[in-house]
Design goal:
Number of helices: 4
Shape: globular
Number of strands: 13
Strand content: 25-35%
Structural class: alpha+beta
Distance between the termini: 77 Å
Helix content: 10-25%
Number of domains: 1
Order of helices and strands: EHEEEEEHEEEEEHEEH
Largest sheet: 11 strands, antiparallel
Length: 211
Amino acid sequence: MRLCQRFSKDELSKSGSSLNRGIFDDKIMEYLTKYPKTISFLDGLNHRIDVDSKEGVEQLHIVVKKSFEELMKVFASEGFTKVKFEHKQPDQIGNGLNLKLKKPWEMHVRLVDLKKGLIGIHAEVEVSRDYLQHLFSQRTPVVYEVEAILKKYQIDYKLWHDKVKKDVHAIIDNYKVKLATPSIPVFAWKPMLFVIATIGAFYGWKYFNTI
């Protein structure tokens, strides 16, 4: 059983760099991680995290009492950059952040205002925005990868189950999550835009020169 928000000195030193980026297979580029499966609350009740074929996994909030600016500096130090285009969540603060992982994956983090000085951190791993498959490929929420960053910077946090409206006291066991490489080879759309623009300019020039 794993208790939330209790860190030993060994845990903090072992977190070392920071981010557990998951385990990849060099040949097929799977992303493997864990996600809480059964949790307990302070009142002693246990709860199983639901998995729905349409909605996916119930997302837990990682909650911290830090300012938006402080968190942005922390994530920037870890290599995250601002996301230009995204579907914003209710009460989201500013732009989301993303971190390139091993091709074709990236981690997408959003910061949400929970009021009373608290900020919720939502994170998921998905196919990078550099590829067309980002629009329709599978993705998964993650918590342990963000926990590793918070431990490195010795930031206290707690897990919150928004649907039940309770703090998570302990994680009893975990799902094993595997994101498989997209069945269709990933396709970078930015270079294609350049090719299309170049061809369009060429034919436009050719057209006007024949008039």
